[in-house]
Amino acid sequence: MASINLIESFQEFKDAENIDRPTMMKVLEDVFKTLLRKKYGSDDNFDVIVNTEKGDLEIMRRRTIVEDGQVEDPLAQIAYTDAVKLEPDYEVGEELYEDVDIHDFGRRAILAAKQTLASRIGDLKKNVLVKKYSDRIGEILSAEVYQVWKKEVLLLDEEGNELLLPKSEQIPQDYFKKGENIRAVIKKVELKNNAPVIILSRTSPLFLAKLLEIEVPEIFDGLIVIRKIVREPGERAKVAVESFDDRIDPVGACVGMKGSRIHGIVRELKNENIDVINYTANINLLIQRSLTPAKITSMDIDQDRKHAEVYLKPDQVSLAIGKRGVNIKLACELTGFEIDVYRDTEEEVNEFDIDLDEFTDEIEGWVIDELKRIGCDTARSVLELTAEELERRTDLEKETIEDVRRVLKEEFEKE
């Protein structure tokens, strides 16, 4: 039997373990039928038989035996005289099967077949990888850090496939070392220069959603549904949840006893503050909950313009706005409303106060802007907060705060 051992001659065959057997056999048949067409002009009367267990391949040629002198198609027919030279028992009308020696194709043709096979297998492996990860977009996985670069991190999955975690998809506090395992969500699969690129993310809301699904069985079972997640990675996240079972408190279930369920997620997200709120179709209540931890006094809502004016006590304004405005930004994203925050001054109507802009001669403009940023737009609103509180909420130095408070106090003493 003329055959060729594919395991030795075609090393790529061994590397194609992710390719199913029927596909592999079809590729091999196609490659060798191409050789046959080049050598004989047609592959109609040839059978390519592949044994994927042993890595053997053989090619059988079929021809019909005809009377001498009646051969019309040499590829499909053979004269009786020639047939009996191969096997004396043959008769006219029978099918003659003959092994084709692979080496008859010549060294150059076999080398070309190897290259074609390697290329086809490479394409198949790419397609398998693309399909595998395209079907898993949105899933969470654990992968090993292989290389850390300035703009991205290269990871390897359990099968050795390369995955990329770009800097833009990393939490600002993330720090990775080679060899450690990290968790991320599969964001997308791209093709760059005909090569599949699997992009992971740790900043996507989907990552937080999947972490919650792992930690909270009620979400996994469908008893609690996540309505929306908004994030400022590494800073704060807001999660709106709803329960389909009146007996289950969705917020309590997500947070867990003494925060047991949420703590693990907070650590994974580098101490990102996570506000879990109960979703409601009542927009007034949803806006109120979205501004957690601040407590709202009252609000005016314009449904048509998707705009809300929220009034809070002076000490709640900075809580509603949050550090660098993150809290109010996330509340806007969660509710879909543009939210403006105002100090509720009803209790102070009869109390004398002075606008901070009146102090531009004594206090620098940027200091006034910083105080306004935390909701303090009048002299009394600044003095209502302690120096320690002002230092904690603003970027002002202790000495600057003391000077500001002194100027404001003197003005009131004059009055």
Any overview of this molecule?
The structure is a single chain. With 415 residues, the protein is α+β, with helices and mostly antiparallel strands. Helix content is 38%, strand content 26%. The strands form 4 sheets. Strands 1, 2, 3, 4 and 5 form a 5-stranded mixed β-sheet that branches. Strands 6-7-8-10-9 form a 5-stranded mixed β-barrel. Strands 11-12-13 form a 3-stranded mixed β-sheet, with helices on both faces. Helix 3 runs antiparallel to helix 5 (107-134), helix 6 (205-215) runs antiparallel to helix 9 (260-268) and helix 15 crosses helix 16 (398-414). The radius of gyration is 37 Å and the shape is elongated. The N and C termini lie far apart (114 Å).
Anisotropy-based shape: elongated
**What class, by secondary structure content?**
alpha+beta
Major beta sheet summary? 5 strands, mixed
Number of helices: 16
Number of domains: 5
| CATH architecture classification of the largest domain | 2-Layer Sandwich
pLDDT < 50 runs, ≥5 residues = 1-12
- Write down the CATH class of the largest domain: Alpha Beta
Give the percentage of residues in beta strands.
25-35%
First and last CA, distance = 114 Å
Mean of the pLDDT scores?
83
Subunit structure: Monomer. Binds directly to the core enzyme of the DNA-dependent RNA polymerase and to nascent RNA.
Family: Belongs to the NusA family.
GO molecular function: DNA-binding transcription factor activity; RNA binding
Function: Participates in both transcription termination and antitermination.
